[in-house]
Amino acid sequence: MSATLSIAEVAERTGLSKDTLRWYESEGLIPSVRRDASGYRAYDDAVVRMIELVIRLRRTGMPVRDAKAFVAMARQGAATHGRRLALLREHRQRVLAHLAEVEGDLHAIDSKIDHYVDLISQGRDCADQVVTDLEILSQQRSSR
């Protein structure tokens, strides 16, 4: 992207509202956005990439204060590469721990789905008794 984007274009591209983009800027979650000759925000490629990164960091649970710290370090240049790397590695470990937890939760859900598939296919209730009532069997097989 060589041309700049308006706030509306960045909002559409990122899924953030214009108000959220303004708030991100005022809170230091993204670098300051330059203004065009008319005073409107003009987002360049570097700022848009930072917004997209901040969205990912926040979506994966990075606290606002850490995301702000990352952006502040980025403004300071290459001297902060090591600190930014450390911050991202720490966050990565938290994300991996959360993924493991979610995978365990997904496994439990899959097991429960398998349990109900088995009960329905065998025509049994939760006490593992055969269901003989045709109305209950019909309802058992219904997803509504």
TrEMBL record:
Entries under Gene3D superfamilies matching the protein: 1.10.1660.10
Coiled-coil zones: none
Protein known as: MerR family transcriptional regulator
Annotated signal sequence range: none
Pfam families: MerR_1
CDD domains: HTH_YyaN
Keywords: DNA-binding
InterPro entries named among the record's database cross-references: DNA-bd_dom_put_sf (IPR009061), MerR-type_HTH_dom (IPR000551), MerR_fam (IPR047057)
Superkingdom of this protein's organism: Bacteria
Lineage: Bacteria, Bacillati, Actinomycetota, Actinomycetes, Micromonosporales
Domain HTH merR-type: 4-73
Organism: Actinoplanes sandaracinus
